[in-house]
Amino acid sequence: VHYREEWRETYQNPDSLVGGGWQAYDRIEATGNIAGAAAPEVVARDRSGVLWLYQGTGNGRVPFTTRTRIGGGWQAYTLLTGGSDLTGDGRPDLVATDGSGRLWLYRSTGSATGPFAARRLIGGGGWQTYDRIAATGNLAGAAHG
């Protein structure tokens, strides 16, 4: 995985190597600051379905802390995305689709020991037709609730 401290580079033109071993994961998602770290964070799902949190440090030479286990069972989700505040609480959240096509919201708690509140169903079906999802935030300017 590559990281640029100023976040100006793209994945096609990364600035510096920050570590190896990322091939152990089948999903890696930038989530924003879900756990209250000094900088944006990353979650990674391993092939057995365990989701791991890498808290941002704000240091370009060592951009992430040692990983923290969030929990197992995440193999049930076909797509994950995060980084947008979907609940209006000032923290970025995570959304996931399951094999049945349902869309789930994981609200950020701001805590590294339990970064997400209990999941909440926000889409009853049909999401399996999509091969990508993006958490864009409040595009319509609607009030959160």
Notable characteristics:
single chain; 145 residues; mainly beta; 4-stranded antiparallel beta sheet; 10 strands; 0% helix
Describe the protein.
With 145 residues, this protein is mainly beta. The protein has one domain (2-129). It is built from no helices and 10 strands. It has strands at 2-3, 16-17, 25-32, 39-46, 51-56, 68-71, 77-84, 93-98, 103-106, 120-123. The protein has a 4-stranded antiparallel beta sheet with strand order 3-4-5-6, with no helix packed on it. It has a 4-stranded antiparallel beta sheet with strand order 7-8-9-10, with no helix packed on it. The chain is globular, with a radius of gyration of 15 Å.
In short:
With 145 residues, the protein is mainly beta. The protein is 0% helix and 36% strand.
Cross-sheet strand order for the largest sheet: 3-4-5-6
Q: What is the domain tally? A: 1
The secondary-structure element order is EEEEEEEEEE
Report the oligomer: single chain
Low-confidence sequence ranges = none
Q: Using only CA atoms, what is the Rg?
A: 15 Å
